[in-house]
């Protein structure tokens, strides 16, 4: 029996720099009857709810509403996108493209390094799946209950109750 590989994972969060503009506007709005404090609270809350979970098998973007998972082998391309403000703050968005959809991992520091790590993980997972498909021996297709009949027939032959010729002749009916 083969055991499944242990799944390694780690979690990332967007940098606070991703929300820099919103934080500045909130601070500037504090003198307006505390609206800035309320806004600051909700921006911080939104910032803390976003999690990027990266494992050996998939990448997930989790927030308070939903979880979007993409298998590593389904990713066809990884792009790095930056606005002018993101360039100044040294952060970027990674866009993971699949044949069906795109997933954006926003506000990440060191996006080039993370991109290369993800590309290596994608390649390793593709190689692992190819090897797994090669090593999985295809089991013969038997009709339900036929294995029990073959085992019974083999038992009769081993006990010497039927001859080897009869055993081979009957065995051919099951193959």
What is the correct CATH architecture of the largest domain?
A: Roll
Rg value: 29 Å
Strand content: 15-25%
Average pLDDT for all residues: 84
Tell me the number of strands.
7
Described by the principal axes of the CA atoms, the overall outline is elongated
CATH fold assignment of the largest domain: PH-domain like
Uncertain residue segments: none
Largest sheet strand order: 1-2-3-4
CATH class call of the largest domain:
Mainly Beta
Number of domains as seen in the coordinates? 2
User: In DSSP terms, counting alpha (H) and pi (I) runs of 4 or more, how many helices?
Assistant: 6
- Head-to-tail CA distance between termini: 24 Å
CATH homologous superfamily heading of the largest domain: Pleckstrin-homology domain (PH domain)/Phosphotyrosine-binding domain (PTB)
What structural category do the secondary elements indicate? alpha+beta
Oligomer state equals single chain
Helix residue percentage: 40-55%
User: Could you give the order of the helices and strands?
Assistant: EHHEEEEHEEHHH
Instruction: Give the biggest beta sheet.
Output: 4 strands, antiparallel
What is this structure, in a nutshell?
This protein is of the alpha+beta class and 175 residues long.
């Amino acid at each position: 029996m083969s055991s499944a590989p242990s799944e390694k994972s780690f979690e990332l969060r967007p940098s606070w720099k991703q929300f820099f503009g919103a934080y500045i506007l909130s601070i500037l709005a504090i003198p307006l009857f505390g609206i800035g404090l309320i806004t600051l609270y909700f921006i911080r809350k939104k910032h803390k709810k976003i999690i990027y979970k990266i494992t050996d098998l998939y990448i997930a973007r989790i927030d308070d509403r939903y979880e979007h998972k993409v298998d590593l082998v389904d990713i066809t391309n990884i792009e790095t996108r930056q606005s002018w403000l993101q360039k100044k703050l040294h952060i970027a968005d990674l866009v993971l493209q699949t044949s069906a959809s795109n997933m954006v991992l926003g506000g990440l520091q060191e996006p080039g390094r993370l991109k290369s790590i993800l590309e290596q993980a994608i390649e390793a997972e593709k190689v692992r799946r190819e090897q797994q498909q090669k090593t999985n021996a295809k089991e013969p297709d038997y009709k339900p209950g036929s294995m029990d009949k073959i085992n019974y027939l083999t038992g009769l032959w081993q006990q010497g109750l039927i001859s080897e010729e009869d055993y081979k002749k009957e065995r051919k009916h099951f193959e």
